[in-house]
Amino acid sequence: MKRTNVVLDEKKVKEAKRAFDVQTTKELLDLALTELLRMHKRKNILSLKGKLKLDLDLDKSRQTK
What we know:
This protein is 57% helix and 0% strand. It has helices spanning 10-19, 25-46, 58-62.
């Protein structure tokens, strides 16, 4: 864990805490960073669309063993 001091817009912090049902600013910032990273990873994955050649047999992969 890293400790840091930041200046935040109190109005936005209050609004976000209510919107996302979190109690503490730490919890809010952790949620925000997690979501930001998730969106970044999804964007990176979507950028691969059409660039990978996959040879999949859907019928075969759907068969239960």
